Amino acid sequence: MPEVPLADRFAGLCAAVVRVLPFGLSRIVAPSFLGFAVINGFTFGVDLVLLTLFHGGLKWPVWLSISVAYVVAFGLSFVLNRALNFRSHAPVGRQAVLYAVAIAVNYVAFLLGLGAGLAALGVEYHLSRLIAGACEGVFMYSVMRWVVFAKREEPVTV
Q1: pTM score, two decimals?
Q2: Residues 112 and 128 sit within 8 Å (Cβ to Cβ)
């Protein structure tokens, strides 16, 4: 019996979990959204581990530790979502550029704009970060599904 590729097993597991979600959620939650949540939850953990290693262990400055951990985590998220979740085989160059633009928009609009904006308005900064993070998740999933890894129609050759 041929071995099932990891990406197909990951997609199958996400689809199986979504099928048994309660309260009718199985009709509105896409398996790729669950896959995105799993992958990005994992990469957030990687971000925190790297931050701890860089700042706590190697004594790098906080700004550098945060920046490097953030870039590595988002790079890992791109690779894992491309391979496992959206199973894209399109050329990586265009996708990487679109992803980089999405990350920049995400950073300015949600992390700085919404998160810092809510904190400036008096919302407790942890709560403002959680609110911004929830919006960031919806934005990034939407961009990855419908822009970065969108299924493109193949040109018809005559």
Answers
A1: 0.84
A2: no
